[in-house]
Amino acid sequence: MACDAGPTITPRALSAAALCVLLQSACAFAEEPNTKNEAIDTEHIYGFMIGTDVGDPGEHEFQTTATGRFSKQGGNYQALNQELEMEFVPFRNFRVELGTTLAAYDISSVPGLANLNRAGLQGASLDLRYKFLDRETAPFGLTLAVETHGIRFDEISGLQMRGYGTELTLALERDLIPNLAIATLNLSYQPEWTHLAATPTEQQDSTLAAAFGVMAQVRPGLLLGGEARYFRQFEGIGLDEFAGQAFFVGPTAYFQLSERARITASWSFQAWGRPAASGAALDLVNFERQQARLVFGLNF
Known about the structure:
The structure is a single chain. The chain has one domain: Beta Barrel (Lipocalin). 6% of the residues lie in helices and 60% in strands. It has one helix spanning 11-29; strands at 60-70, 76-91, 94-108, 116-133, 141-153, 160-177, 181-196, 203-219, 222-235, 241-256, 261-275, 290-299. A 12-stranded antiparallel barrel has the order 1-2-3-4-5-6-7-8-9-10-11-12. A hairpin with a 2-residue loop joins strand 2 and strand 3 (94-108). It is globular and about 50 Å long. The chain starts with 10 loop residues before the first helix and ends with a strand.
């Protein structure tokens, strides 16, 4: 039985529109890159992770992030999120980000999920980050991020619901080779509360995650590297009952288009996973087989 709400906008169409906007913006702001080697600013160099840098006081940025999640245990599964965010740094070491998200789902013949094709406003978010240690003056960089969000569609099934959650992320960072290579570690805990439409009870779940990334500056304004991420999901916000786990790995590229514009592109595939009470080599119940992200940012 197909579920429908609002106009029929597929993830493929929304993805194409987002890509056009990003490419047009990139062309408009592209300039000849600076040829001088400079210290690596890690605020936006990762796709799925965060760096410890938070920007300079008084800085304002607009950012759009397109995230695609593809392939389940069978059938057709495509989910796309398009985030629009405003970032500003009111004072030293503290960054605030306000965002809104559009979501689109195209699901058919996936075991355990209803056939569905829908798109609409997903929700809003608030992200606060504070840098406690600067790696230039301390043995390593240290930043705490607290992101709170509310959503209207279930992240996996796309079904209508009310949900909210918080993600706590601790980022640690150290230069491997000053101005050339850097390594970053993220540790996070994410509790979620959801209430699906037409159901009397509220569901709770939580996720623990650890991610490690390395980026190298191959020339000024161009960084290449990769991210490895491990997720462990539980039922209940207190890590009550194990639900599944997955390990994702893939490349990341960052390109500074000009002094004001930048692009980050990441792709990850599930290299290993296991849902609860199963001997499967991948967890395609709680996670997807592939994830991709494209980020465009502009300072003003």
